[in-house]
Amino acid sequence: MFGIGSTELLVILVVALLVLGPQQLPKIAQTLGKAMGEFRRMSTDFQRTLNTEIAFEEAAQKRREEEKKTLAESAAPATPEAASPQATQSQPASSEPAQPEAASPQPASSEPATAEPGAQAAASPSESSPEAKA
């Protein structure tokens, strides 16, 4: 119990009987028993509360880690695509001048279809040449 052997406990009970007397000893023993039982209940309740709080904190920490992983995974695919060789190969095609698009038979812009494709193609080289600006 408290590191007290049976002989030590017997000595304590004999001394208590002599000091307190036979009339008060049962009342004090009952009070002491109730106090020890209450102490055990409080101790058990405290341990349960502590274990519950620890479990909630661990669950919350796991949720935070999973959310971080989810956010990292959702953000990670966007970054590697931009750096992938396929993305860099498609970029030069889109960064070329608009001349090939203007020469296409179907205009990509919202201009009417009656516009002459040759007029658009002729306007683009003259705008980019320094001689036409001077």
Notable traits:
single chain
Task: Give a description of the structure.
The protein is mostly helical. 77% of the residues lie in helices and 0% in strands. The protein is built from seven helices and no strands. The termini are far apart.
The SS-based structural class is mainly alpha
The string of secondary-structure elements, in order, is: HHHHHHH
Tell me the Rg in angstroms: 44 Å
Low-confidence stretches: none
* Sheet with most strands: none
Put the structure in a nutshell.
The chain has 134 residues and is mainly alpha-helical. It contains seven helices and no strands.
List the helices and strands and how they pair.
Elements: H1 6-20, H2 25-75, H3 78-83, H4 85-95, H5 99-102, H6 117-128, H7 130-133
